[in-house]
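Workshop exercise sheet. Pairs work together: one partner reads the sequence aloud, the other fills in the structure field after running the prediction. Swap roles for the next sheet.
Pair: D.N. / O.F.
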Amino acid sequence: MTAAAVLLAADHVAGTVDLLDLPGGRPLARLTGRHLSEHAGFLTLPGDRVACVDDRAGELLVLAPFEAARGGALVAAAAPVAVPAEQLAADPDGRFLVVTTGLGAAAEPWSDLLTAVDLAAPGGPYAVRTRTRAGEPGVTVLDGGRADGPLAVLRHREPGSLDLHSLAGLLAAAPGCPVVTPRTRLPLPDDGHGDAHDPVTGYLFTATGSGVHRARRSGGGLAAAPPLSWAADGRAGGRGYFLRIDARHRLLWSCLRGGPAGPADWPAWTNDAWWHHLDTGRTGRIGLGEGLVFRMAVAADHVAYARCHPDGDELVLLATGDGAPRISARVPLPPMAGAPRRGRTPWDDGAQRRAVAASPGAPWVAVSRGGHGEVHLFDAASGTERARLALPGPLDEGGRLALLTPGDGAHRDPAGR
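Structure field:
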């Protein structure tokens, strides 16, 4: 019998991936020797499959969690890709994927490799590597229509630009990782960080210090639209470093970080949830509190942020199902023994963090307790803990989580998270 909901828990440090049923936490499958890219994360594909990158092996993996729940193999397909993986995105149909490379363990950009993958190529998945320019590029994959086919848009920094490439052209590149020239280039501020794509409107979004820049396909190129402001509801300042789409409620989300600039001053960082309705154009901001807010997750009628602070961590739940988003609950989280400390950066020295995951088809939110091998499962509607799941490993640095329900439509946010 297929599980009603499952959780993928990747310990990228230890090199394991565990599949559990929910809410009970019964083990369903396990991978060992697989060090998933924490930065690229999980990408939900149509057909209840999930893509991720094994950063040590240099492989894109397509996982079939519900088939594994029925006794089948968890890994449905694999393809070689360049690593360290920075960002991962798919076209709306989930056939074509693009993987960019980033810093990995290096201090400065060094890799200019880009990998395009066709999961439905004759004979099995087919991957081609090309070269662009070194950096930490973001990526979105647009539906280019029958004439052009899917289009990959790379978001570069310093100098900032959106570079448009044909997927067919990338996949037809000659051997030897040749340099590819973009079909067209759109100027962008130098500090872009965070990307999203809404297949309904065709818009792609990039978070910058000055706001959210927008563009979409126009003829054979890209046309810019007026940027979205970070200011809303009488609140200004800060900037977002990621973007996520709640396709069910047609909301674009980020978290705006403000306060002192120094990483060691992270307990005094301010955090605002920022949202923009993709159809009405309405925008709002909601204060979350001080500390480290790393990522967020989208549940059926809520979004969830995990906030870390020396005075205590919490899960912040915002209701999205009726009217403008609002905070519905603040739930204390058990402390982590290796939590970030005052006077030190929150991501160095082996500091523990929390991963958060949810499904747009379920009311649950999962939050990891880094270093303790625990995942807390909450009912978002009530803010109560439903279960506490024990993992075989420590989940150092918080690991990476993906919560899935069959047919939940999570693939309508076609970027790795």
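Discussion prompt: The chain has one domain: 6-412. What would you look at next?
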